[in-house]
Design brief:
The protein is built from twelve helices and seven strands. The protein is an alpha/beta fold and 339 residues long. The strands form two sheets. It has a five-stranded mixed beta sheet.
Length: 339
């Protein structure tokens, strides 16, 4: 009986027969390829979604970069000038005068741009306007919303030509108006040679820039009045040019940002040094150089002046005391080795 029970119990431990389906064979290459092809549409859909998301993120990044670039620049938008019909029929139209006014602003701010003391003023809308699909807003609308949010709106120059007794006058005003930027009026030649019209527009720009951005005006006055040699090198002309630079710098110190005030003091110091070079009076020249050193020191106390300003300070020291001048050059070489 015991033997029979052991035989019946051991019957459950018999190995499976050869060829049984307990272990399935590995699929062949054809089956693996078919399985991969079956999953391919899902992979492609996932890749498509990833690429679309990346494209949207990239587009939004470019829009944000363009908006920030536009908001960063101080813009002057010159609107079409209103011209009396009688003058427009035989003279320049409003669009042409607006374009020539833009040229006058560029001329007045070019020196500041080339000296790298101040970015050139952005004229009008520099980035092509387009619709942002994901936001449903145009580029112009987005930029203006951001500018209003951060309090940096473009300055608009509007104006018209009015007929007065004996001729015409160009009237310009800032939009929005500013406390120090009232309307500007200049005589305008009706039957111009072009150079007379250009001079009239230059005069208008120099009278409106103190309310818009005085620093480029100060630099332009420095270059035109004291740096470029002209036929009139009289002391009266030198003092008059120096006074014009001082007035523009004073305007900037009242309204400009801190970085521009640093450049303004540097410009003032350079104007004093240039005036000293032109004067034959040794005592007056020395007085101007010492005052120039005070302006350069003010620039350094407010921030980090450009290397050009620091070199002009060293030039002034060299003219007063060669030993101090050479020592200042050595200090600059140690302070700004990469500049």
């Amino acid at each position: 009986m015991a033997q029979q029970g052991l035989e019946e119990a051991g019957a459950g431990f018999r190995p499976a027969a050869v060829g049984s389906s307990a272990v399935e064979p590995r699929p062949g290459p054809a089956r693996r390829l078919a399985a991969a092809l079956a999953r391919l549409p899902g992979w492609l859909e996932a890749l498509r979604g990833l690429l679309l998301s990346a494209a949207v993120i990239l587009a939004l990044g470019l829009v944000v970069a363009a908006v920030l670039r536009e908001v960063e620049h101080q813009g002057i938008v010159v609107e079409r000038l209103e011209v009396p019909r009688r003058l427009e029929e035989r003279g320049p139209k409003g669009e042409v005068l607006a374009s020539q006014l833009v040229d006058a602003i560029v001329r007045a701010t070019r020196a500041a741009h080339f000296r790298a003391e101040r970015p050139s003023l952005a004229m009008g809308w520099r980035t092509g306007d387009f619709q942002v699909p994901t936001l449903g807003l145009s580029m112009t609308t987005i930029v203006r919303m951001v500018e209003e949010l951060v309090g940096r709106v473009d300055t608009r120059l509007a104006g018209e030509i009015v007929e007065v007794e004996g001729g015409y006058r160009l009237r310009l005003r800032l939009v929005p108006p500013r406390p120090t930027g009232g309307p500007v009026e200049v005589p305008l030649p009706a039957a111009e040679p072009p150079e007379r019209l250009a001079l009239a527009l230059d005069d208008a720009v120099r009278r409106i820039l103190p309310a818009v951005d005085p620093l480029p005006l100060a630099i332009d006055l420095l270059v035109e009045g004291l740096e470029r040699p002209g036929p009139d090198l009289s002391p009266e002309r030198t003092w008059r040019a120096l006074q014009q630079v001082a007035e523009a710098v004073t305007d900037c110190l009242a309204v400009c940002a801190s970085a521009d005030r640093v450049a303004a003091y540097g410009t003032w110091g350079e104007a004093l040094r240039r005036a000293a070079v032109r004067l034959d009076d040794a005592d007056a020249a020395r007085m101007l150089r010492e005052e120039a050193l005070d302006k350069f020191a003010s620039a350094r106390s407010l921030g980090r002046p450009s290397v050009a300003v620091l070199l002009r300070e060293a030039d002034t020291l060299l003219e007063l005391d060669p030993a101090r001048g050479f020592a200042r050059y050595a200090e600059l070489a140690a302070e700004r080795p990469r500049d």
